[in-house]
Amino acid sequence: MRLLTYLLTYLLTYSLTYLLTFTGLLAKSRITRLSAIRLLIAHTFGISLGLAMHGSSLAQSTGVLYEPEPPANAAYVRIVHLSPHEQVDVLVDGKLRQSGLQQGQFGDYMILHAGQHELQLRSRLSSKKITATRLDIRAAQVLTLGFGNLQTSLAPQIFEDKTGQNRMKANLTVYHLADKLGPVNISTADGKTSVFRALAPSGSQTLAVNPIKVELLACPAASQPSGAGDCSSPDTQQAKAALVLERGDNYSLLLSTDANSALQARVSKNTLETRVGK
Whose CA is closest to 119, among 74, 77, 175, 73? Predict the structure, then answer.
């Protein structure tokens, strides 16, 4: 029995060694026989294993094989703020989670356990500017918190985000934070397709679309002819956003105003914070 086990181990080791040598990985990483066996097991069964290396770790040379799984009761929360000329640090329960968040920039979705949390936005330019809010979140919730500016008493606008189920589509979510402009229309720049019609202030909508490269045009709905869902009227302020939407990804379109109350439209790809396994 021991002889059979030894022969099987020997065969697996040298089979993998040959494969790794052929691809050039062995020469770069200098994987030991034991490490090669563990890598084969990890690859076969989808298990993330720490591999012992001579001189350097596999994670350093080729990247982490698998990200740690989020907790079963995880929720996902991100921040966007509109405070002009501010960079903010995001703290959760007193611990720094993100730093240097710019105006109009969506932060990474932070992975939090369900329950109560205290969120703080702290200005990097002035230690006196701190916004704090308490949040009670449920497992599997996906939230975006929009802060108009850094005021202690200002509650954020809370959006419950939808996650795309169809991996063949791209998902686009628009957030209307240009409240003073009233409802807005969003159409393709050529005016042929209405994408979002009369989106209410502080509102959000999600649309699943085919992968596409397109330019969108946003404008106040009140400035358009009655019933029109596009932005065809030239006598109105408009904001453009160029999109390149890829299959299976999620994107956010933020509508806000600048210091002169002009409409702005900014698009970004959704991101999840990097988690490092301990």
Answer: 77
Query: With a threshold of 0.85, does the pTM exceed it?
Result: no
The answer to whether 113 and 73 have CB atoms below 8 angstroms apart is yes
Give the tens place of pLDDT for each residue, 80-124: 999 888 899 999 999 999 999 999 999 999 999 999 999 999 998
CA nearest to 218, candidates 235, 203, 236: 236
The CATH 2.60.40 domain(s) of the chain lie at 69-161, 164-272
Tokens of 246: 């890829």
Contact 142, 73 (CB under 8 A): no
Write down the architecture of domain 69-161 according to CATH.
Answer: Sandwich (2.60)
